Amino acid sequence: HLQRGSGDGSSSWHIHLQGGGWCGTVNDCSNRRMSDLGSSKFMKPIQFTGAGILSSDHLQNPDFYNWNKAYVRYCDGASFSGDAEGQAEDGTILHFRGLRIYQAVIDELMEKGLANATQAILTGCSAGGLATFVHCDDFSARFSHKVSVKCLVDAGFILDVKDISGQRSFRSLYGGVVHLQVSHWTCLKL
Fold it and tell me: Tell me: the pLDDT tens digits for 65-96?
């Protein structure tokens, strides 16, 4: 979803990566495939009203209200990082293409004016926040050093600690995501 900026914000861009959890097993991902978190076929149009940092209200968001804003919907289950295929129990092929989706969206936004930005910020929440961590260097590298580029993560930093049951649940979940989706974050220590 793209909302064009205006006035002194017309050359500034805010890209927000939606969150939506992760799927670390074929069964988990297969269950998501029939929802808006597993396929764009099931996404309903949304009104780009935004709140907080995405708001177009100059009183609520005085710094970014008139910037170009892109809200990138999430459906890959691996923080826009998957690039593999899997097979569900019913034989359906699952396509994990979050990395390609991220790259295609940013490429298209570059064509729509992001390449001429004087300021750009990449943000994300939860799984989108982790995606912001993962893609921040790539995002920054797309601009000349004269462009002010920032990345802001909201709730995307997940600690590798024991939960109340004494288990490292997130380690297991992330391990499953990386193993299943053969993503480019296989270099991370799990």
Answer: 999 999 998 888 888 888 888 888 888 888 88
Beta bridge partners of 177: none
pLDDT in tens, 125-146: 998 999 999 999 999 999 999 9
Residue 146 lies in a domain: yes
Amino acid (one-letter) located at 31: N
In the block, residue with structure tokens 């220590």: 189
Is residue 115 in some structural domain? Answer: yes
C-alpha closest to that of 119 among 66, 52, 178? 66
**Taking the model in full, what pTM does it have?**
0.86
Q: Could you read off the pLDDT of 160-189 as tens digits, one per residue?
A: 888 899 988 878 777 777 777 754 444 444
Contact 178, 30 (CB under 8 A): no
Residue 78 structural domain: 2-182
User: For the chain, how many residues are written?
Assistant: 190
Retrieve residue 80's tokens: 């826009």
Q: CB pairs under 8 A, 24+ apart, for 136-140?
A: 139/15, 139/106
Query: In which residue are the tokens 């670390």 written?
Result: 24
- Mode of pairing for the β-strands spanning 12-17 and 68-72: parallel
Residue 115 C-alpha from the chain's centroid:
19
CA dist 16 and 71 (Å) reads 5
The total number of structural domains in the chain stands at 1
Instruction: Indicate whether 187 belongs to any domain.
Output: no
